Write the structure tokens for this entry.
Amino acid sequence: MSIFKSGFNSVKAEAKRQEEVKASMGKQLFRLFVKANDSEGVIIRFLNKEPVTFNEHSIQSGKKWINRLCVGENCPYCAKDNRASYKGAFLVWDYRKYEDKEGNKKESGLRLYVAGIKVLTQLMRLAERNGRKVGDKSKNDGLLRYTYQLDRDGTGTSTSYTLAKDEPCDKLSAEEVIAMLPEKLREDYDNIDDSNMEEVLEDIIMEQLKMTLGNSSSDDETDELFSKEEDEDTDDDDFVDVDEEEDEKPVVKKKKTTLGLKSNKSLKTSLKNKLKRNA
């Protein structure tokens, strides 16, 4: 594939591409990351019951790692011998606080949580223990019954994650889920109801992942949303052609805390305020 193009048709195509990127910026979700020095861990709650699974490339760009969706046949990254890794994605609510430009503390909010095979296996077991058989979407709520504390230990390929049940939580209504979406996403998915919620949430995840298709030269406008810290390397177990297990594994442990319960109350209050503003 040539690095050069000729004619005004290529100019029109690039102008259209840049406009599409700008239009999509308000619809993109940041990924959930846990820093190695985050001693308090992260409290999250899952919005969808099961992951959307896919293969993904990690491309090093300076001190960052850029995520790019693998398209399989004719994938430009596979052609460069960049191995794809197996991933699964959820929509989660991140309860961490941050300060905005005015100094007001706010919850981080909706995030795209992408995990490798080890963590996905642990999440599958948690869902089963919560009373729902894998693949049966009509019974129970699996991961939706609790908030979870996510801790990180180590750096690079020796990184491991600990998932612990936090507190029971009430099932979110379709109206509350809509209120959790960024404004521009809300405009596209205001048709969510209790009967189609899981399918619509999966569609949102897939559309988010499609934004990481990029191209072999990378799109600077969108890289920041899909990059990760330099020491958050992909575990070898995630690569699609690797079967052996590493020594480090995510551990599921029981940990008693009231942080999630308080966070659920604050989330309910936040959603009520959003619903009032949207009315």
About this structure: Residues 259-278 form the longest helix (20 residues). DSSP finds eight helices and nine strands in the chain. The CA atoms of residues 115 and 275 lie 31 Å apart. The longest strand covers residues 85-99.
